[in-house]
Amino acid sequence: MTQEQKDRSEHLLQVEELKKYYPVRGGFFRRKVGDVKAVDNISLELKRGETFGLVGESGCGKSTAGRTITRLFKPTEGKIFFEGRDITNLRGSELRDLRQDIQMVFQDPYASLNPKMMVGSIVSEPLVNYGKGSENSLKQEVMDLLLRVGLPEDAYFKYPHEFSGGQRQRIGIARALALKPKLIVADEPVSALDVSVQSQVLNLLKELQAEFDLTLLFIAHDLSVVKHMSDRIGVMYLGNLVEVSDADEIYINPKHPYTQALISAIPQPDPRNKSERIILSGDVPSPQNPPVGCPFHPRCPQVMPECSEKKPHLKEVNKEHRVSCLLYE
Amino acid sequence: MSNQEALLEINSLHTGFEIEGKTYHAVKDVSFDVKPKEVVCVVGESGCGKSVMSLSIMNLLPKHNGKIDKGEILYKGRNLVNLNDKEMNKIRGKDISMIFQEPMTALNPVLTIGFQMDEVLINHTSMKREEIRKKSISLLKQVGISRGEQIVHEYPHQLSGGMRQRVMIAMAIACQPQLLIADEPTTALDVTVQAQILELITKIQDEVGMAVLLITHDLGVVAEMADRVVVMYAGQVVEESDVDRIFYDAQHPYTKALLTSIPRMEEEREVLNTISGIVPSLKNMPKVGCRFVDRCPDAMPECSKVDPQLGETEKGHSVRCLLYDASHPGKKTEVR
Ligand SMILES: Nc1ncnc2c1ncn2[C@@H]1O[C@H](COP(=O)(O)OP(=O)(O)OP(=O)(O)O)[C@@H](O)[C@H]1O
Ligand SMILES: Nc1ncnc2c1ncn2[C@@H]1O[C@H](COP(=O)(O)OP(=O)(O)OP(=O)(O)O)[C@@H](O)[C@H]1O
Ligand SMILES: [Mg+2]
Ligand SMILES: [Mg+2]
Fold this sequence. Notes:
By secondary structure, chain A is an alpha/beta fold. Chain A contains ten helices and twelve strands. In chain B, the strands form two sheets. Chain B has an eight-stranded mixed β-sheet with strand order 6-7-8-3-9-10-12-11, sandwiched between helices. Chain B has a four-stranded antiparallel β-sheet with strand order 2-1-4-5.
């Protein structure tokens, strides 16, 4: 086995130089006039049983990355390996089989549940679709799942609108768990919830991960939440992964100027500990027309002349700590 | 009990909505004040009445179903509740300005930024036409928009969310108000842009010498910005004190629970504290007793029988909870 093959089988998921572009159409004939480079080069790997947090600001491509990795979207370029197997171009029944192992939980619990279906049917749907469980065992299994995620027993016979936001998120989690997947991609699962309800759902996800031996890709824009949940964290900016590291390390010792600014910008709930903020100037550029060179250079407080010419790549600076920045090349 | 030094003083405000022929109080007995040049943060979860409270101050409640039923809102001693539209128009934008969470709803999409900014100055000052445009551009500079000369000719949709919020702030401070009410001004923005806007508000507050009533659900923003904090739950003020005591010496079980349920960057915790259940909806609000009782870890039997009153437990620290009410037998002997 080559080192490369070995890495691929050790990791549950491996993403290599992934790109996902959306076509931009314009003019009378709706011709393609450009691309939104939503994901413009990310490489990462998920170790079995870990939680990997993907963090970044609105529009940086987190959701696109999550959906492309789970193969809800077809990648524009790059490769994805799941348990050592290349899933980049799977189609039809093979892709369908893959869905048993990879499930998603979405941000908006309102939009992601069919309002006309009873909760019991929503949660059992994947089991039925994949021909899992007999009719008797099915209902019991779903009841157990509902109880496990903290819903009342009679939830089975109710409809989504009868539940609060936090409870609906529990329904979404139960559905994602039904097929006993190996990987769950949770895309902003608590962003729509109130603080007091957020912590309920975060605790639940943590418990379930340990109990079901799940690997979790946890996507959020709130770095405090991501740090609480994750073993390792990847920071995205304008379609690129700019830093990957252990969760504590990235907080204590951020390397990329963007990560440094992001961390310093988070208001800390402690009036006795107001740290100096790094205030970035300007706004995030459009992913349709990203800057040449380093995507962050127009806003970077530590910009150097070569940053507008050369595009940096993820390089290891410490063990398990990778940064994409010319300062470290 | 008029407070001499207060710029704004709210006394026992009750604001109700008529739904299916019945009145429900979204704000029920809210009292607090804002002193000149002070930053007061109002914090609470979605639906607790923060926006209804600020709309009540500005007299901007939806006319068809919303109404102040009781209480007073004193601005420099003058009760705003009794003012008619014309009188209120003179105060809005001049003495008290407001910015909202989504600037897009407050800006008119078919008018240029310059036109909308000029309008504020035309309404509230006697400046000449040609001075007005210059002033608008200099206001844009003040909020950190350097391309002011161009921006005045652009439309709201051509600007990013952070830029729109800057324009709103520029309009709000055009007449140097003494009070700025900011209702979740950064909730729709990214953290790095939020940091820009919060810094801007602080800078302008300094320059103009205005007081700020900042409404947010983010305890981080509160810690960063506030001099004093008003904690709301289900339409009521449950605790009020200076920012340090709210974070280091909270008394109300809700405030305490909220503070321990947020993940913090600097500490490792396997499990976050949770508050069981959810906020009761307007229609399901308990008729009598504490509104937090169902979710309260310290609830006592009498909590669902008696309405707790907001009372001072020490100078400058008020709490609405029977545990701290000396006239009730359940009072905690070892307070804290
Ligand atoms: N279907 C689509 N067609 C064209 N462009 C898209 C599409 N979906 C997303 N985009 C664009 O791709 C970029 C990345 O979007 P994405 O939703 O992945 O970001 P995100 O990091 O999840 O943001 P948020 O935090 O707002 O959820 C954005 O500029 C977005 O406008
Ligand atoms: N126009 C209205 N008609 C009827 N009920 C209303 C109206 N506006 C607000 N309410 C109700 O009043 C209560 C308080 O709402 P408010 O908007 O003040 O909450 P909030 O604290 O600002 O919440 P958020 O953090 O979500 O902005 C809610 O229960 C809401 O449903
Ligand atoms: Mg997203
Ligand atoms: Mg509001």
